[in-house]
Write a structure and sequence with these properties.
Radius of gyration: 17 Å
Strand content: 25-35%
Order of helices and strands: EEEEEHEEEEHEEHHEEEHH
Bound molecules: thymidine-5'-phosphate, aspartic acid
Shape: globular
Largest sheet: 7 strands, antiparallel
Number of helices: 6
Number of strands: 14
Length: 238
């Protein structure tokens, strides 16, 4: 079967291609790592392969929990077929421990526990630098309806509860992470990826940073740490 592969969209870490089916796309995971709205960029060998594998394991497991994801089929080590969803231009961030921009914005100490977790919404808009939005802003900009926001909140908390426990079982602390959702027919579906590019994960016993902060902060061993996360997840699958 010959795939028609017209590029529909290219992001910082992924490409999206059309397929013969109008309601499906191919998502290709690139090796490019970026930070600070693309100001820092580097190719890290096999990062795309590792993130594709990690995200697929997590999406499969979330599906088993009743969370609808865009994942249709794994094509190869860098590509999946996904439902073509109408992406809601919001980054839904869940935080269990103070880190990153929350520490900077509030002065709270990095590493402090956040009981029950908190949610934040950011506007997916590179030109604006992905600003933090509240629910009134989301309504004002007509990015999502009130009831859609309620669904996003429920799903984000549900995913958080599941992922906290999953990562805990492989010796990792889920500090925070980012989700993206889209509309498909009349449903809200989890899209994008969940990987060390989009999560903060610390080793439970050593507190070693295992995620993209290694790249942001020039800590080295980025893909080695990503691979370690994949290996621990694979042991669970075995
Ligand atoms: P932050 O502390 O920089 O706001 O990041 C919160 C979480 O969201 C962290 O796990 C990294 C993730 N994230 C992304 O996936 N994409 C982004 O563009 C940003 C800024 C954060
Ligand atoms: N992904 C974003 C970027 O490239 C930011 C980040 O993850 O730090 O710039």
């Amino acid at each position: 079967m010959t795939e028609v592969k017209r590029l529909l969209y290219e992001g910082k870490a992924k490409q999206v291609f059309e397929t013969q089916h109008t309601d499906e796309v191919i998502i290709h995971f690139k090796d490019t790592a970026t930070a600070f709205n693309g100001k820092k960029s580097e190719d890290l060998m096999d990062k795309g392969i590792i993130n594709n594998a990690i995200s697929n394991i997590l999406f499969h497991r979330l599906e088993k929990q009743g969370i609808k994801t865009h994942l249709v089929k794994i094509l190869n080590d860098r590509e999946v077929i996904a439902q073509k969803i109408d992406i809601i231009p919001l980054e839904v961030v869940v935080r269990n421990i103070v880190a990153g921009s929350l520490a900077k914005r509030t002065g709270l100490k990095e590493g402090e526990n956040i009981d029950g977790g908190i949610l934040e919404f950011y506007y997916k808009d590179d030109d604006l630098g992905d600003p933090l939005l509240n629910k009134d802003h989301i309504e004002l900009l007509t990015l999502a309806t009130k009831s859609e926001v309620a669904v996003l909140e429920g799903l984000a908390h549900q995913i958080n509860q599941y992922l906290i426990d999953l990562f805990k079982s492989i010796g990792l602390i889920l500090v925070d992470f980012k989700l993206e959702f889209g509309r498909y027919k009349d449903q809200i579906i989890l899209g994008d990826e969940i990987s060390p590019d989009t999560c903060r994960l610390w080793d439970s016993s050593t507190k070693r940073i295992m995620d993209k902060d290694r790249f942001r902060k020039d800590l080295g061993d980025v893909t080695t740490s990503y691979r370690e996360i994949l290996d621990r997840l694979k042991q669970l699958e075995a």
